[in-house]
Design brief:
- The N and C termini lie far apart (68 Å).
- It is elongated, with a radius of gyration of 25 Å.
- It has a six-stranded parallel β-sheet, sandwiched between helices. The protein has a four-stranded antiparallel β-sheet with strand order 2-3-1-4. The protein has a four-stranded antiparallel β-sheet with strand order 5-10-8-9, with no helix packed on it.
- The longest helix is centred in the middle third of the chain and has 19 residues.
- The N terminus is likely disordered.
- By secondary structure, it is α/β, with parallel strands linked by helices.
Length: 417
Amino acid sequence: MSDESASESAATFVEDVLLEGHIVDSLILPKILDEITTLGGTFEIKQINIGQRRADPSSATLKVSAETADLLEKILTSIGQHGAVPVHQQDCTTVEADIDGAFPSGFYCTTNQDTQVRLHGTWIDVSPQEMDCGLRINAAGDAADCLPMCQVAKGDRIVVGRLGVRVKPLKRELSANGAFAFMNSAVSSEKPKGILVRDVAAEMRKAQRGEGKILVVGGPAIVHTGSSDHFSTLIREGYVDLLFAGNALATHDIEQSLFGTSLGISMEQGNVMDEGHEHHLRSINAIRRAGGIKAAVEDGSLRSGIMYECVQHDIPYVLAGSIRDDGPLPEVITDTLDAQQRMRELIHDVTFCLMIATTLHSIAVGNLLPARVKVVCVDINPATVTKLSDRGSFQTVGLVTDVEPFLRVLVNELHNE
C-alpha cells in the first residue's frame, strides 16, 4: 500500500464543505487547501465550478478528512474563517451567558470579515462586524451582532461552536491596477509612493462626493513634522469625516496655535524656545480654564490648528487617553472602555481609514474596523504596518515615509483633479 493510500485509510473522520464566491481570483481556494494539509488533514475536490468572467462567482465542494475528530474540528474551524461551511447545514447553537462580563465556554470568536449566522433556516448578516468578539442573538431570534466580552450580560444568547456560522471572505478588487487591487498588507519603503498617494486621493474624492466616509487616526508627529496646515486643509475641504487621536495630538496642535511651538521647538525657526518645555502644559491649562476645546474656539482664544478646524466644521473626534498623558485636555476620554465604545458608535459608515504615525491608536482602531474598510497606514516605521497585519487587519496597505511629505503630496494631488 502506498503512503498516500495508508494516509487516506487512517483518515476516518470526514466532512464535506462548500466554498462559494470569488474563491479563485482571491486565492481563497489554494489558501484553504494549503491550510488543510498544513494542519495534518487531507482533501478531495469533489466538485468545482469556475466563473467564466472576473465578476462571476465560483464554487467548490471539498471532502475534508482527518485522523481524529479533534483534528477534523480544528481544521474545519480554521478553514471556516475563510468561508468554508458544511454542506449539511444547521442553525447556529446558542447558550445563555451565565455571568456578566464573560462568554460561555466554547463561544464563537469573530474575525473582522463579514459574517452570517443561520437562524430558522435563514442566513442573517451580523451587524456590526468586529474582530475578537462573540456573537449575540437578539431576544426575537432574528438578528445578530458582535459583542465585546466586557459587555456580556447574564442571559444574553451567545453563539457557541462553528456550526450555523459562515464568513464571507473579502474579495479582490476588480480593478487590475492600483494599491487596493489586491488589498494586501505588503509594506516596503521602496514601493512607488506616487501611485499609492493617487489611489488614496481617489478614495478620498469618492467619500467627499458622498460615496463613503473618511476616518483619520492621527499621532502627534503630524504636528511635530510641520504638517498641521496640510491636515487642516483636508478638514476644511471636506476630506475628513472623523478624527481619532490621543491627548498628545490635540495638545501639541493647540501648543502650536498658542505658542508657535511643538514640544517647545519653534515651528518656524526649528530651535528650542526659552521655557518651551512648559508650553504643552500651559496649553492644556489654558484649554482647561476655558472649559474645553470647543469653548476655547468659541471665546476666541483658540484660532487655528487641527482641533480648531474640527470644531469649526463640526467634525466628530475621539481623544482616547493613556497613562502617560499630562493634564489631560477636558475632552480626553480617560476610561479606555468608554473611548472604545465611543469609537464603535462612530465608525459604522466608514469606508476608508487613513492612519498616520501612531502605532497604538492604529492597532486599536484596526481591531474595531471590518475588513471591508480600506486602510492605509503611513508611518516612518514599517513595524507599525506589520503589527497591524499580525493582529488581523490584513487589508492594510502600508506606506513607509515621513508624515509631512506624504500630506503635502496628498493635498497637492487632491487639488490637481
